[in-house]
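Each field is set out as follows.
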Amino acid sequence: MEVEPRLLLVDLLREVLDLTGTHIGCDTSYCGACTVLLNGRSVKSCTIFAVQTDGGEIHTVEGLAREGNLHPVQQAFAECHGLQCGYCTPGFLMSTCQLLAGNPNPGDAAIRRALAGNTCRCTGYQNIFKAVRAAAAMMMSGDGRR
């Protein structure tokens, strides 16, 4: 598709493609609510122009669940109460997916590093970390969709 050169990826996703799972939380790239995967790497979509993604593969939170089944990361966040208001959740989910794709059994330090670019204003983070560990266990054991 053709886009205006100054259109941000987050605006393309939300306003043009109606993929509103990617949230705009701060307009300063601090919060991470707009995190998506670009070629398998998490990026804050409020910091990148849509034209910079030409030819790239973009994954948003909408692509996690398949055929009515939650992705193990989504399932773990729900079961472990890794969300409260849910506004930051898409960014945490996408960052977790990137982490587990490269490190299927991360330790606490690796989890903290991977999620450092995401901010939650509602939780104390402990259930988020618990959810990441649970998702890793589900995915390693084959319990879950992936």
Summary: Residues 64-140 form a domain with the DNA polymerase; domain 1 fold (CATH 1.10.150.120).
